[in-house]
Amino acid sequence: QSTSMEYVTQCSSLIFDPAKMAAGLGRGVSRLLTRAAGVQTPQVLSRSLHASYQRHETIPVRLPALSPTMTEGSIVEWLKKEGDEVAVGDVLFDIETDKATMAVESTEDGYLRQIIIGDNTSGIALNTIVALMTEDLDEEPVMPDEAPAVDDAKAVQEPAKEKPSEPKAAAPAPAASSSSSPSANATTKPLSPAVRAIVDRNGLDASTIPATGPKGYLLKGDVLAFLDGGVQPLEATSKSAPTPTTESKAAPSATAATGSRRKRQRGSVDVPASGMRKTIASRLTESKSTIPHAYSLGEADITELMALRKELIAETGRKFTLNDVVIKAAAMACRSVPIANAGFVDGNIRHNTSVDVSIAVATPGGLITPIVFDADKQSVGKISANFGELAGKAREGRLQPHEYQGGTFSISNLGMFGITNFTAIINPPHACNLAVGTTRALPHPTKGMSQQMRFQLSADERVVSQDDATRWLDVFKAYLENPKVVLTGLTYTDLEDY
Q1: If we measure between CA atoms, which residue out of 301, 297, 295 comes closest to residue 440?
Q2: What are phi and psi of 343, to 5 degrees?
Q3: Backbone region of residue 366 per phi and psi (left: phi > 0; alpha: psi in -120 to 50; beta: other values)
Q4: Nearby residues of 409 by Cβ (< 8 Å), 6 or more positions away
Q5: pLDDT tens-digit readout, 266-324
Q6: How far apart are alpha carbons 197 and 480 in whole angstroms?
Q7: What is the CA radius of gyration of the chain?
Q8: DSSP state of 36
Q9: Which end of the chain is more exposed for a tag (fewer CB within 10 A), N or C?
Q10: Could you say which DSSP state residue 359 is in?
Q11: Do 156 and 124 form a contact (C-beta atoms < 8 A)?
Q12: Which of 30-44, 106-120, 410-424 has the lowest mean pLDDT?
């Protein structure tokens, strides 16, 4: 009987270890259990225990990478609450990437049990656990081993909770030393511009800050030490004055001085940059510092284009903008001068087989460039419909990555804002960025008044030479000045008398 009990003990330790059961250790144990107690065989218990183990596994929700350039993200808002049932495909939360605000969907069925990183939290590293799910509502979630990564991300959300006690603990020691210093008295000297700026910005009274400078001047270090809590404030009016007359004259003058200064207080508020703003700053800095920009300015007479556009809209009732024609003409020019549609990638000149035009769109978070694919093959009407939809999605933060990542040629148009001409920064790996200005009515020797459009091409000289840029601008101008060719989809070789 004792031998049988030993078998049972040994078998029980194996049965309740699902990993060992899964490794195939149940065959010998089966014989022992059958012999010892006539209980269920380990194969039956293994299946039930392993299923139970899987059923009670916590499902971590991690921050996904939604774009190739994304290194961190910000949770804007949770759309599910703790305790909500979640199905595959349900939107859990909105995330702000380096390009846009996008929805993160669940890849598992279950219940959202714990939100670890809440709304409006920025600087979250990729793959960080932001929440925990379980398959059943009555199960307790268990944090995986990489909990420190979550703690670091959570510290970004509430940075102020870690620091309040530190300055208070360190304050008494410097305060005692400063109060014992006989030379630390209120200043009666004029404040330097740097000291005055700090005093005004923080709304301080200079007469309450101990001055340790030569001849009683208040130093910048004195004000900073006062702000850090390292020194104790002085009385606003001096108690050591020898006569009542001196005291009565000094105190009002100090009060009047600080009062007049406080009326002119200036300050600032630091607002954390969004992921999109950080990416724009990084990309533009990289572009200007590493790409040799060359600029070529051009101008086209679009009087005929404006008249034809007005006529077609009146006849068909289908509206299209001047920007739609610019996109089409630029794409056709890229087909005629392919080097302008190339890019510089990993030390190589990449010749693109399609013309995909990226157009800058202003959003509350910054600029984003939705793409009109195969723009040279689309009609102006189709370009108008496609770009109108893309621009709307961009302003609402609903663009998907494939709708703004890539492209072969860039256009920045500020003409609708009345800007005559400006300089665009190249968007790598593109080799060119076309800056389009507004139209102007100018006198013409034979036409009377003509509508002129000015534009400037920024080109990467590693890819596009000045001759190439000039050829592209000539073709682009020819298309704008022959709008029937653009609107009918003909090619550059079909232009007459050019």
Answers
A1: 301
A2: -150, 165
A3: left
A4: 330, 331, 334, 340, 341, 355, 356, 357, 358, 430, 432, 434
A5: 678 888 877 778 888 888 899 999 999 999 999 999 999 999 999 989 988 888 999 99
A6: 55
A7: 36
A8: H
A9: N
A10: E
A11: yes
A12: 30-44
